[in-house]
Specification:
Elements (H helix, E strand, L loop, with lengths): L1 E4 L5 H12 L3 E6 L2 H13 L5 E4 L5 H12 L7 E4 L16 H21 L1 H6 L3 E6 L14 H21 L4 E6 L17 H13 L9 E3 L2 E2 L3
Parallel strand pairs: 1-2, 1-4, 2-3, 4-5, 5-6, 6-7
Antiparallel strand pairs: 7-8
Helix pairs in contact: 1-7, 3-4, 4-6
Length: 230
């Protein structure tokens, strides 16, 4: 399969690429920095893993459109899109202190970016059907379980979950399944050193949706042990 992973030069995204490449898939690693993205590809190559690089800033609509044009010259089909790129505004920040710029930035990267990218890559996904879109979300985006804290991040992930449901219904006739998934609390730059899961396990929780979950499953919010309430 041909698989594109966004925000993949480090952390969970990089490990997702590593695990998928080990399984023999054609993996396209995207990042907003050419230097960091190409370095990640070289690091994977040291382990004997061939991964391609695509320059893509999901917070920039022009970058999304340029990336789609570049992909047209490189691939005919896309079987899996993993919308992983995300930013965290303020650690445990209350909504009472949330700044407009932080809220705007998290929404643009964490919600609007995946929406626009999925739209831009739809022809490739249709050509690759049955295909999948996996939106990497978070338990912090569950409206039912939501409390104060991580204001911009939680709100943007809740909005991403809403977009997941919209896309799942809109793309079902095209043979494309769409699900949101939480990797868990993972030890990365974003998750911090106190997180309960190593990056390998967090990535595995996303990779299994490519390898172990039937394509017919769509419109769900998933974690390792089952479903998360929207």
């Amino acid at each position: 399969m041909t698989i594109l992973v966004t925000g993949a030069n480090k952390g969970i995204g990089l490990e997702i690429c590593r695990q998928l490449a080990r399984l023999g898939h054609r993996v396209i690693l995207s990042a907003r920095s050419a230097e960091r993205g190409e370095r990640a590809v070289k690091d994977l190559a040291k382990d004997g893993l061939k991964v391609e690089f695509l320059l893509l800033d999901t917070a920039d609509e022009d970058s999304i459109l340029r990336a789609a044009r570049e992909l047209k010259a490189r691939i005919a089909v896309l079987h899996v899109l993993i919308n992983n790129a995300a930013i965290l505004d303020t650690w445990q920040g209350t909504i009472l202190d949330a700044k407009a710029a932080d809220l705007r930035d998290t929404f643009v990267t964490n919600t609007l970016g995946p929406i626009l990218l999925t739209q831009a890559l739809l022809p490739f996904l249709v050509a690759g059907k049955p295909s999948r879109v996996i939106n990497v979300s978070s338990q912090l985006g569950s409206v039912q379980n939501m409390t104060d804290g991580w204001a911009g991040y939680g709100i943007s992930k809740a909005a991403l979950n809403a977009a997941t449901r919209k896309f799942a219904q809109a793309l079902a006739p095209y043979g494309i399944s769409v699900n949101a998934a939480s990797p868990g609390w993972v030890r990365t730059d974003m998750g911090g050193d106190s997180a309960s899961l190593p990056v390998e396990k967090g990535a595995q929780n996303i990779v299994r949706l490519v390898t172990d979950v039937p394509h017919s499953l769509t419109n769900h919010f998933l974690e390792e042990n089952g479903e998360i309430p929207w």
